[in-house]
Design goal:
Shape: flat
Helix content: 40-55%
Low-confidence stretches: none
Largest sheet: none
Strand content: under 5%
Distance between the termini: 76 Å
Length: 89
């Protein structure tokens, strides 16, 4: 049994599985996030929690949890630098 015998054309099959009607467009990059002081406090809490997790870890792996701590520190420094530029003290 072929596709044509069921009354469905090849074009209809292709369109059903995600063929775009409009041409593809370039993806625009999102604007950088505008952080607030609440985000700064939240990031500090996240760094403290990650430090506690690394300190309280009883496993034999010294690097366990380090990636989360580094990510939290990086986000905190990003927020601090952006707020420093936007809100001069």
């Amino acid at each position: 049994m072929t596709k044509n015998s069921t009354g469905v054309s090849r074009k209809d099959i292709r369109r059903a599985f995600g063929a775009r009607v409009s041409p593809r467009k370039k993806r625009t990059r999102p604007e950088p996030r505008q952080y607030a002081l609440v985000d700064l406090e939240r990031a500090r809490d996240r760094v403290e929690a990650a430090e506690r997790r690394v300190d309280n870890d009883r496993s034999n792996n010294p690097n366990r949890g380090r990636a989360g701590l580094e990510r939290a520190r990086l986000e905190l420094s990003d927020i601090e630098s952006q707020l420093r530029v936007r809100l001069p003290e």
